[in-house]
Amino acid sequence: MKYLLTKSLIATAGITFFTLLSPLKTLGATFDSFQVFGDSLSDPGNLYQLTGGLYPPSPPYANGSFSNGSLWIEYLQQDFGLPNSAVLNLAYGGATSGHKNVAELLFGGNFPGLLDEIGAFAANPFLSTFDARDLFVVWAGANDYLFGFTTDPDAVVGNIIAAVQTLISPAVGAKTVIVPNLPDLGKLPSRAGIPGMTDLALKHNQKLATALQALQNAPSTAATLIPLDIYSLFENTYNDPSRYSLTNVTDACLNTNTNTNTWQICAKPSEYLFWDGFHPTTVTHRAIAGLASTTLTSVPEPDATGAIVIVAFVGLGVKVAQVTLTSSPP
């Protein structure tokens, strides 16, 4: 069943964008396409479709996504002026960094994890030839820790690096990959005060930064790996909510009334950091997209020698280091 399911990911990916996007100012044609892999933070409706419209319930969730509006990757698509046809999104809500998915705890059966998404993509016999203007996104790991699949950051980071290695291998040929780290999991409304969550996120981010740098420095790597510092974005927002016109950065806007078994939505969702106990509001997704846009547009084109400079997160996600990367000529 797992094999049949993962094969179906490619077939369903072309019809996963359900939210009509309002026009924003574009940044210019820096990228020609997006290929997206991950979990609910990037899933525009894939799990919803796979469960026959059961999960997440929509409404109150927007168009089968895990938020109340557009996700960061959809905003990023707008920022770079890409049509839906230029975006292949294989992210599935509940995906862990490996082959497990939280949805299996709810529905049984097999649902894709990150490595399944990557494997389905890599097995497609009709893959295009990719260059630096084709952006690959790999964002996963939170569900591994949040739902008790593992407390070993080495295992989770190992899965993420394996996913990136598959994408940048000659068989696939990705040339530009962005890899976000994790926010402080101990500050999610559903996990606030649970011992160990903050420490897991910090260790994860440290190990991810180190592993990405090592992979980037490997002689065989002919791709640009771009870290995205989500940890610092959230920390800065906690410290100064007004920068995004937020008034609540600790509670979920969406809650369940256990007495009536109905949904309760806060009066002003646009002022909340979190939509539910795990997921950001669309306002927060817009901020994530803003960080991604700034990060991506600050990475210069390779010069004649193939050398470029990027900014990488190091340690806790709050310290930056400038490194020079050399890619092999085309």
UniProtKB/TrEMBL annotation:
By its UniProt entry, which SUPFAM superfamilies does this protein fall under? SGNH hydrolase
Which molecular-function annotations from GO does this UniProt entry contain?
Answer: hydrolase activity, acting on ester bonds
Q: From the UniProt annotation, give the residues forming the signal peptide.
A: none
The record's section on CDD domains has: fatty_acyltransferase_like
Q: Which Gene3D superfamilies match?
A: SGNH hydrolase
**Which PANTHER family does the record cross-reference, listed alphabetically?**
GDSL LIPASE_ACYLHYDROLASE, PUTATIVE (AFU_ORTHOLOGUE AFUA_2G00510)-RELATED (PTHR22835:SF659), ZINC FINGER FYVE DOMAIN CONTAINING PROTEIN (PTHR22835)
Q: Please state which protein family the record places this protein in.
A: Belongs to the 'GDSL' lipolytic enzyme family.
Protein name per UniProt: GDSL family lipase
